[in-house]
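**User:** Everyone, produce a chain:

**Assistant:**
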Amino acid sequence: MSLANGRPYLAIPGPSVIPDRVLRAMHRGSPNIYEGPLIEMVASLFPDLRMVAGTTGHVAIYIGNGHAGWEAANANLFSKGQKALVLATGQFGLSWANSARAMGVEVEVLDFGKSSPVDMGRVEAVLRADAAHRIKAVLTTHVDTASSIKTDIPALRAAMDAAGHPALLVVDCIASLGCDEFHMDDWGVDVMVAACQKGLMTPPGMAFVWFSEEARQRCGKSDLATPYWAWGPRAEPEEFWQIWNGTAPTSHLYGLREALDMIREEGLPNVWRRHRVLAGAVWAAFDAWSAGNPAIGMNVADPAHRGWSVTAARFGAPHATRLREWCENNAGVTLGIGLGMAPSIDPAYHGFLRVAHMGHVNAHMTLGVLAVMEAGLHSLAIPCGPGALDAAIRAVAEGA
């Protein structure tokens, strides 16, 4: 017998849970794409996209996923042969480096491993050593979706300033936008990349690039910016079609409008706080489980360096895979795979998983996931410490 019948819960780090309000907003026929309500509605998106990013700068929207956002940023930032410094704290930092490299950008990677934050001293040293200022931009993830490591962006900006280096600061906020606190302008970020399918609670299909006027001026002659990827016409269109370089993704846009309305209604600081409290509940449960089994633990030891949208964890092979399968088959809860922690052909791969708490998520959803995981641990006879649910409940009660 299975207890999975009923509404399933996808507790993976994107695509996140889609609110019913967003689904209803998207459920409509194709509108007039030449004039009228659609054009007016799209104009209303840009102030709110600036609001969630914390910027007064430019915004370009692309039809695509997060990888498309990377490519858009790469294409506008660089010409072939120019150099990027990529700070990798997990799979997605390395993947962004590969994306830039494949487009003809020279890439230097500072790899800080899968469980450690960026060492700002190393960054400053590399930038000081670049006396010719060949590095045009420093690329980093705010929260790496695979490792859940959060980069201290103000500290990174300070390290770059201390080195006296003119490189642009470019940040991937795909896993953190609308979940973790972020202030693009106040933190000195020049370019920011995100997508709609995580904290923005809309089905996959749109990527966003925010860029400062300084970035626009310094990157205006990139030879990688083809007509489709060029951010200028999208951010400052003369005609509506130029925002998309063609037909608009109409259903997604209505969904995004509703999602941004929901964020405004809750208040962005409250959105951040909700994610922080729910993340704390997950961390409290893991602390309790790990007390009875040292093989169980979170990937990032210091809470200050953990993202608020996703928790990467280990259970010891093969128990993470066993637990994921039990939760999905017996209780209707899908947990994330341990992406990038080990090759899928390596037995160690089955020792990692991720628990997402991003976007349209509340206390009963997060506590429910933890309760299902605890049931799975007991059903599978995986050793764990007691009191995980009590600890998670206290974290929620104290944070509310």
